[in-house]
Design goal:
Low-confidence stretches: none
Oligomer: single chain
Strand order of the largest sheet: 1-2
Structural class: mainly alpha
Number of strands: 2
Number of domains: 1
Largest sheet: 2 strands, antiparallel
Helix content: over 70%
Distance between the termini: 58 Å
CATH architecture: Orthogonal Bundle
Mean pLDDT: 85
Radius of gyration: 20 Å
CATH topology: Arc Repressor Mutant, subunit A
Length: 130
């Protein structure tokens, strides 16, 4: 049986891992890429680029590689000329997208409160500097 200290250390390590993964997810454009992929199974690179207004090709390529490394997406290359590449959310990616959808819904519901509080804090911070 593990001691209390061992359990706490295990939890600290799990939290650190979760934090690292969250940092990966919070990179710019990662969540829109996951969302777009959930809307379009068997998406090709240019389809995703058209769906995500403002994303550069280089950034989309980076995000797709990151998400493939973490197992969130599956990249399939078809041996055709020219080669056809399609991207899909993995089962893990589908589950993650559902959680992200819940997070987005929470943000929508609380947007005014969060934004007004943030704006008030910025004003107060600015006033204290003067």
């Amino acid at each position: 049986m593990k001691t209390h200290a061992e359990l706490d250390q295990s939890t600290v390590k799990e939290c650190a891992f979760a934090s690292d993964f969250f940092n990966q997810l919070s990179k710019k454009w990662t969540m829109p890429v996951i969302h777009a992929m959930g809307l379009k199974p068997n998406a090709r690179f240019n389809e995703l680029k058209r769906m995500i207004e403002g994303i550069s090709s280089a950034c989309l390529s980076d995000r797709l590689m990151d998400l493939e490394k973490t197992g969130v997406i599956i990249r399939r290359v078809y041996p055709e000329t020219p080669p056809r590449v399609e991207y899909n959310l993995s089962d893990k990616g589908q589950e993650l997208r559902a959680h992200l959808d819940s997070l987005v819904e929470w943000v929508r519901k609380n947007k005014e409160t969060v934004m007004s509080r943030e704006t008030a804090e910025k004003r107060q911070s600015y006033a204290s500097v003067r």
